[in-house]
Design goal:
single chain, alpha+beta, globular, two-stranded antiparallel sheet
C-alpha cells in the first residue's frame, strides 16, 4: 500500500530517505550537506519547506525547467 501511495505521489523510497537525511543533517547543523540534499531533490522536482514542525515536501519545478524558463 505504501509503495502505491509513494508512486502516486511521484516519490520513491530513495527520495524519502534523502528527505530524512536532510532533516538529520539540519538537526546536526551540517548545513552544507543539508543544502546539497535540497538541491538534489529540487533537481528532480521535489520542493522542501522548512517550518517549526520540521520539513515538509511538495511538488516543485525541476531545476532544468526553471533554468529554461529563466533564460527565455
Amino acid at each position: 500500500m505504501r509503495e502505491k501511495a509513494l508512486k502516486r505521489a511521484g516519490l520513491t523510497e530513495e527520495v524519502l530517505q534523502k528527505i530524512d537525511g536532510r532533516s538529520s543533517a539540519r538537526k546536526n547543523k551540517q548545513y552544507e550537506r543539508s543544502d546539497e540534499i535540497r538541491k538534489e531533490l529540487a533537481a528532480v522536482g521535489n520542493a522542501l519547506m522548512d517550518g517549526p514542525e520540521g520539513t515538509t515536501w511538495g511538488p516543485g519545478i525541476p531545476l532544468d525547467v526553471q533554468e529554461k524558463i529563466a533564460s527565455t
